[in-house]
Amino acid sequence: MEKNMSDLRQRFYIEDCPVRGEVVHLEEALQTILSQRPYQPAVQILLGEMLSATALLASTLKIKGRISLQIQASGTLKWAMAECTHLGEVRGLADYEDDPHFQEASDSSTVLKTLQNPVLFINIEPEFGERYQGIVPLDQPTLARCLMQYYDLSAQIPTHIVLATTTERSGGLLIQLLPRNNEEEQQLIDEDIWPRLTMLTETLKSEELTQLSANEILYRLYNEEQVKLPEIEQLKFGCTCSKERCANALIQIGVDAVRETLAEQNPILMDCQFCQARYTFTAEEALGLFGEHLS
Ligand SMILES: [Zn+2]
Question: Which Gene3D superfamilies does the UniProt entry name for this protein (predicted)?
C-alpha cells in the first residue's frame, strides 16, 4: 500500500540534549472528519487543533490504547472531542449550535472565548488497566496555551506546543524537556538549551506549520542543533467503534430503556457518529445482553 505522506508524525531528538519532540500533519484524516457534519469554520479550526494536539499527546504515551481531548461547555458549543490511538488512528466530532461568531477563525481562541462553564478533559484509556482523566483549565487564549500550562503545572514536564490549522490541513509541534535523573547528567547539558529551543519554536508562523514539511519545519527552527530523526509514523482516520461497544452502551442504559427503545424501533439501529457505521441489534440480541428473552 502506498504511504500517505500528508498525514504523519515525525519524532525528533536533539543530540546530546534531553529534549524530544514531534511534528504532526493531518490532511486526509482532517478532511474526512470535517466532512461528516456541516461545521462552521471556527468549529473546524477548533477540531483541527484538537486533532493535531491528540496526535502529539498520543506520542508521549508508553501504552497501547487511546488518548482523547474532550471539551464540554454550555453556550453554543456543547462539546468537541478528538482522539488518537497508539496506532495513529484519529477521529473527532463536535456538537454546537450555529453562532455568528463561528463564521471565521484563525485559531482556537475564536471558539474558546465563547465557551461558558467549559471543562477540558484529557482521557487516557489503556487497552488494559486503569483509565486516567486529567482536567485542564481552559483559562488561556488558545488550546496550545491551555495544554502547555497543564503540562507545566500537573505533569511538571516542561512542554512547548504550537498548533495551527486551516480547513484543509492541520499541523502541530511539541517539544519536551525530559526529566533527568542524576546530577552529573544535569551538569553536562547546556543550561540555555530549553529557553533557546522554546524561543525558536515560538518564531514558527502558522502558515509554516501547516504548509511546510516536517523536515523543512525542523530545519527552519533548529538548524543550529543536531536534530536526529527516527522513521516517520503514519497517521490516519480510524474509528474505534464496534458492536461490542454498542452492546456496552445498551447495558449502560438498562433493560427498561432497551425495552422502550425496542417498542419504537425493532431491530435497534445504532449509528456511529464518528464514522457513520451502523450496528443492528435484534430484540433477541438486545434483551440477551441482560439474560432476558422475548416475552
Ligand atoms: Zn465508528
Answer: helix hairpin bin, Hsp33 domain, HSP33 redox switch-like
pLDDT, tens digit, 9 for 90 and up, residues 8-51? 999 999 988 889 999 999 999 999 999 999 999 999 999 999 99
Both 70 and 127 in one domain: the answer is yes
Predicted local confidence at residue 1, as pLDDT: 44
Ion ligand 1 nearby residues (CB, 5 A): 239, 241, 272, 274-275, 277
pLDDT in tens, 57-67: 999 888 899 99
Rounded Cα distance, 206 and 257, in Å:
48
Residue 263 CA to ligand 1 center (angstroms) comes to 25
Run of H or E including 75: none
The pLDDT tens digits of the residues spanning 254-293 come to 999 999 999 999 999 999 999 999 999 999 999 999 987 7
Kindly report the CATH number assigned to the domain that includes residue 271: 3.90.1280.10
List residues bridging with 85 in a β-sheet: 66
Tell me: do 211 and 255 sit in the same domain: no
- The CA-CA-CA angle for residues 128, 130, 135, to 5°, reads 130
Q: Which long-range contacts (CB under 8 A, 24 or more apart) does 267-273 make?
A: 270/246, 272/239, 272/241, 273/36, 273/93
**Which of the 8 DSSP states describes residue 154?**
I
